[in-house]
Amino acid sequence: MIHYSSASISIGYLFIQKEIVLLVLGILLALMFIIELVKYKSNFIYDLYMKNFKHMLREHEYDKNRFRINGASWVIFAAIFCIILFPKLIAVTGLLMLSFADSTSALAGRMFGKKQYAPNRSYVGTITFFVVGIIIMFLAPKYFGTIKEYIIVLIAVIVTTVADGLSLPIDDNFTIPVVCCAVLYLLYSLLYPGIIF
């Protein structure tokens, strides 16, 4: 539910000024980064953190021998990165992919993904990612609503699904929206030359 709730960033950004969204996200990321640092310096804070949040974290996110920021921090960092770098509708679409396709595929993979093709990657999870990605991308706001534009989003879903399935070394909370936004931006630029975002 926490991962799904990250959709509030995308939806909020549709209606709130860019500078305000970046300010709020920047403050949140700074606070979370401070907590991460303090967690590794204080045994008391670490134990308190583990008691309340361990069930929501992956093993590498609480390994005391190696500093790693948690997935929620990566989500906020990705949101800031996409909002700064890409046009609004593209950033919103990429972040919605993270909120819904990634979350739903993770649930489906854990519940039904007995056959895996890579560590933490199941056929059920990847198929779910693709199907939910298609739904999200087709429902997300569009510039033109043309057939060509829907082909663009279909290609972006395919590439993002492949990227997610590759288990890249960077946290997928960052790679999913960034890959999706980058593909969308490139295709819009190529197929709609002169577009004013």
Task: Provide the descriptors you would attach to this structure in a database record.
mainly alpha, two-stranded antiparallel ribbon, 9 helices, 2 strands, 73% helix
Characterization of this structure:
This protein is mostly helical. Helix content is about 75%, strand content about 5%. The chain has 9 helices and 2 strands; from the N terminus they run ααααααββααα. It has a two-stranded antiparallel sheet with strand order 1-2. A hairpin with a 2-residue loop joins β1 and β2. α3 (about 20-40) packs across α4 and α6 (about 90-110) packs across α9. The radius of gyration is 18 Å and the shape is globular. The two termini are about 30 Å apart. The model has no long low-confidence stretch (mean pLDDT about 85).
Global morphology: globular
Unreliable stretches (pLDDT < 50, length at least 5) are none
**Strand composition percent:** under 5%
Q: Main beta sheet, described?
A: 2 strands, antiparallel
- Rg computed from alpha carbons, rounded to a whole number of angstroms: 18 Å
Straight-line distance between termini: 32 Å
Number of helices: 9
Major β-sheet strand ordering: 1-2
What does the secondary structure layout of this molecule look like, with pairings?
Blueprint: H1 2-5, H2 7-15, H3 18-41, H4 43-53, H5 71-85, H6 88-112, E1 116-118, E2 121-122, H7 123-139, H8 147-165, H9 172-191
Antiparallel strand pairs: 1-2
Helix pairs in contact: 2-6, 3-4, 3-5, 5-6, 5-9, 6-7, 6-9, 7-8, 8-9
